[in-house]
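Researcher: Here's my situation. A collaborator sent me these components and asked whether they could plausibly form a single complex. I don't have experimental data yet, so a predicted model of the whole assembly would be a useful starting point for our discussion.
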Amino acid sequence: MKKIILISMVIGTILKAGPLSVTALPNLSFKLMSGESTSLNELLKDGPVLVDFWATWCAPCKKEMIHLDKFHKKYEEYGFQVLCISTDSPKSMSKVKSYIRSKKFKFLVGLDPNQQVAQKMNALLLPTLLIINQKREVVWFHQGYILGDEIEIEEQIRHALNIQDEISE
Amino acid sequence: MKKVILLLSFSMVCAQVSFTGNTETRMGENRSGFYYNETLINTHLQYGNFNNWLQFEFSDPPELGRSLNGLRKMRLEYDQGDLSLKLGDLYEIWGRGIVLNSIDDQPIDRDTGIRGLSISYNVHPFEVQFITGKAKFAQSSIYAPGFDNRVHNYITNHNLYGLDMTYMLGNHLIGTSFLQSKEDHADALSDTLNIKNQLISGRYSYNNTLYDFYIEYIMNRSFEFEEDNASYRDHEDGRAFYGNLNIYLDLFSINMEYINYQFGALDPLNRWDIVSNYGMFQPFQNPPIAMNIHENVLMNRISHQSDFNNEVGYKIEIMGMLRDWIDFFGLYSVSSRSTPWVLSSQDYSWQKEGEKSHLPISDLAATPFRDVYGELSFNLLDGNFHIKIGAGDSYDVTELTSHTKTDTSSAKYYMLTSGQTFPLNFSYSLENGWSVNAKIETQFLSKGFGRIETLNGSTVIDTFYSDFYNDINENGIPDNDEFLDFETNHFMSISIGKSPRWSATLTLDRTNISKTGIDDSHHLNPLEEFLGIDQTKNWVNIEIIYNVTTSMRLSLLYGSLKGGLICTNGVCRIIEPFDDGFKLGLTTVF
């Protein structure tokens, strides 16, 4: 009986999993690297937000962040923001600010040392990306980073911003 | 179980309820009989200010830990502006986690969650949190009966309550914490002892654009209940200090960390015995360490094991950009016990030698650790071509087995792991979504027993007995004539990917030695046969990742794994050794 329930639940969720269901996230609170706190509503005031879960020991996350910083600068004028949430535990937390400052990244950086926010946003793997619209709905979700994913990421950002023109540098 | 499903169904049909969640299924089987099958289902329900988290596990058996079929975790949260209430399984962190940092680290099956109530009140600039609850901490120990690598064999029950307060004044933040746990501790004779542990801390941090720093001082006291007097008597009394200074300059940043953990010094023979020793470092603490978590596989395999009861150390990291396209990273970290240890000439019991040091000691009798690492990264062709080259040197005295001393002589026997590692990684992505990634790591590793004897201040004997033999002979017995000073390890992987859909990685992990007393023969798999390599010293696997949809990811691995931290296909994880078999993983988000 338990196996039947398990199989039904897994199949059910798999069928539901593609495409991602559009449900509003709660108004989650974040601790920022600067020491301040903010909320999802606050971040979404001017436009959609791309949330990225990463850690200082995650090499693919770092490769992806180079592109995310470019997108943050490129689409800032549309009200778009990138929020990279570090899931570093206290074992590596002290390195987060040094790393961000040394790379001169301009995007927002959040801290989630016990992965409570990651859990609520279903970030099972690193990196995980979410694009959230102003209704707090997850309009795009992506797990892992394969080189070249930045093309798809930019397309999804432009889709969220309703930009129809050709991509230009 | 039925009630939970009913509750879940009822909640889902209610209007204005937001429902999200995920599933994670992992299964694997190999020719050595290792088998696991586990599914985790997380659901998040939100209704107004209420949030509900349920986690179900269906495992028989899981990769690590005990089988469970049913509800594993649950929590109900209520948030209204300044006030936040949580009821259920709590995972909280105070400051840098030196007093409290409860985690659920499933890859290593470490769960230090507390089941209880948390009340937080946050009115800027003041923040306070009260928690109370019960916890059952499961650990693995060779000092408890029934030791098994896959399943915990030692459990302690705790009843906790605590309070954490912070006050922010401009760029300054001060905080204080108090946490008490009453513990039922089963000792080596299986008697249950009643222990009361108390932790009090004060912390201060300051940040501005040029630098920031953080300091925290912690006192721990423990008491043991005496049945005869029906009262608690003093048991242990310890102290700890943690400091972190970051400096941000135009061209580079410097990160410095200092640890001085003195929760209770145990002698070299008993330092890992969590059964006979109690009232010191607690499982719900998970503090910073003065060492780096390396991204490369081979350096992580020889990571230093921190002794949180007694360790002094510091770490200095420098990182920055030489050009827009060249990054550099340098690291120097050292740690040791706060005093050397020596065997008493009278009764051969271990004794501390000299006063406590607040800086790491290089004396072998204080089991020193040192890690030096440098790395250059090149991001070329608009971020599409990456090259990373590094070099690391680590030195770790893992155990002191004997140290005798007279007025004129001393003799030390110790276990040492030291290695030089050279990682190289390059990746290239084309505009049409295709990419290639290659990783080559080489390590020269020494591991074994050292002996050093001095007479009148001069070294008379300095020898090292390696763990490694050159080869095993035709009868499968180590050929003990051929000791090797070091083991040469290679880790190589090559990935081809097509973004955003799939990637495939071939990994080869190889060594040149046989270890003494360990049967390292394993099954020859078709990949190893195809490549014509010696399967006793090579581990080969191929892994395919397929993103079925943006929210569903499938992975399939075939082959053998040596184990360790592996980052491939964009995901990092710690992998246990695995010999010729399949691993299947499926994650979905809904």
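Model: Some features of this prediction you could bring to your collaborator: Residues 23-160 of chain A form a domain with the Glutaredoxin fold (CATH 3.40.30.10). The longest strand of chain A covers residues 49-54.
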